[in-house]
Automatic annotation (TrEMBL):
The gene is sufD. Belongs to the iron-sulfur cluster assembly SufBD family. InterPro entries: Fe-S_cluster_assembly_SufBD, SUF_FeS_clus_asmbl_SufBD_core, SUF_FeS_clus_asmbl_SufBD_sf, SUF_FeS_clus_asmbl_SufD. Transmembrane segments: none annotated. This is Fe-S cluster assembly protein SufD. The lineage of its organism: Bacteria, Bacillati, Actinomycetota, Actinomycetes, Propionibacteriales. Residues 137-358 form the SUF system FeS cluster assembly SufBD core domain. It comes from Kribbella yunnanensis.
Length: 399
């Protein structure tokens, strides 16, 4: 378990300290480009790749054609326009790493979901992305018109290796909820970049739920197109033995009187279960009146699991409403377990209650009943497997 924190005020270069293998580069300084050659193939020593198992995903660093075409389709209320468009139809997103640039290049078209101005959808839009076993690329555009209200659920399933780009534009005065669920096969790989542009007085709720996959790495980036924008970024993940779940966020406050709130929670169980959370927030000199907070909490349920949590904050103006961050990683609370067992609750049930309580506040914020119910079911299943692991370990020790 480890926690690192950077708080910078106008600084241009940082370091992890003496003996650090790489400099800690300010998030705003890293390159973005549609050109694949801007990004050399990573070796794992780069700041943005130092936590990632690059050997396991090296095929997605190759600038090569897909070996299969993932199936992507969408359905929703009749007023929603769902169509195939050219890849650069919106260009909210600029790739920030090599896999994203390759996915942009190798996806000449995009699936676009467009909510009309002032539409208020009573049912979610569903986008299904199914990988079929090879290496593939996808590109999705979600655009909410002015003063619209909508929910979009993106469900990733299947096997294989997927690199994807998701562009989100929230029009002035609109409110959009986007839920991205990663529940592909245990051995699958999914790398993604999500970029969102939040309009004047608009609100974005962006939710990332990672429940499956050998390596899942989601980069989420938010910018503001005008004052009064509000972004809520939520994440839930549960990594089991041999799984790597990584979430990287960058909130770029460049407009006045905007808000951002980041809350990610994860649990880990099993040998070599790994989670990584990187939260970067930049408050630019012109972004007066900004209010931002980011929080990451991790619960390590068994030996052999590890969580890394790195909140970073760059502030270029003192004229803000408030800015802060917090991060905590801890093991199972034996005192809570003892309290419940002392009241007659069996150990396995007590463990499930503690973990459910850990997740409940963030699950309650997701706001989509079908996602919430499914998430509860999956967490219960994972906790049952964790209980089996614990029982096996105790039996091996003769306890």
């Amino acid at each position: 378990m480890s926690t690192e924190t950077l708080v910078a005020t106008g600084n241009k270069a940082h370091s992890h300290g003496p003996g650090s293998p790489v400099p800690l580069q300010a998030r705003s300084e890293r390159p973005t480009s549609y050109d694949v050659e801007t990004f050399p193939a990573p070796n794992g020593r780069e700041e943005e790749w130092r936590f990632t198992p690059v050997k396991a995903i090296k095929s997605l660093f190759e600038d090569a054609e897909s070996t299969e075409t993932p199936k992507i389709d969408a359905s929703g209320p009749e007023q929603v326009a769902i169509e195939t468009v050219v890849a650069d139809a919106l260009k909210v997103l600029t790739p920030q790493d090599r896999p994203s640039a390759i996915a942009w290049k190798r996806s000449p078209s995009a699936l676009a979901v467009r909510i009309p101005n002032e539409a208020e959808l009573t049912e979610p839009v569903h986008v299904n992305v199914a990988s079929l076993g090879g290496r593939g690329y996808t590109h999705l555009i979600v655009e909410a018109g002015r003063h619209s209200r909508a929910q979009v659920i993106i469900d990733h399933t299947g096997a294989g290796e997927l690199s994807s780009n998701v562009e989100i534009k929230v029009g002035d005065g609109a409110e959009l909820r986007v839920v991205s669920i990663q529940q592909a096969d245990h051995e699958s790989i999914h790398l993604a970049q999500h970029d969102a542009l939040v309009g004047r007085d608009a609100r974005l709720h962006h939710v990332v739920v990672s429940l499956g996959g050998k390596v899942v790495r989601i980069n989420t980036n938010v910018r503001y197109a005008g004052p009064g924008g509000d972004a809520e970024l939520l994440g839930v993940y549960f990594a089991e033995g041999g799984q790597h779940h990584e979430n990287r966020l960058f909130v770029d406050h460049e407009a006045t009187h905007c808000k951002s709130n980041v809350l990610y929670k994860g649990a880990l169980a099993g040998d070599n279960a790994r989670s990584v959370w990187i939260g970067d927030v930049l408050i630019r000199a012109a972004a007066e009146g900004t209010e931002t907070f980011e929080l990451n909490r991790n619960l390590v349920l068994t030996e052999g699991a590890r969580a890394d949590s790195v909140p970073n904050l760059e502030i270029e103006t003192g004229e803000i409403e408030g800015a802060g961050h917090a991060s905590a990683t801890g093991r199972f609370d034996d005192e809570q377990l003892f309290y419940l067992q002392a009241r007659g609750i069996p150990e396995d049930a007590a463990r499930r209650l503690v973990v459910s309580g850990f997740f409940n506040d963030i699950i309650g914020k997701i706001g989509v009943p079908e996602v919430v119910d499914h998430l509860h079911e999956v967490i219960e299943t994972k906790l049952a497997r964790t209980a089996e692991l614990s029982a096996t370990a105790k039996a091996a020790l003769g306890q």
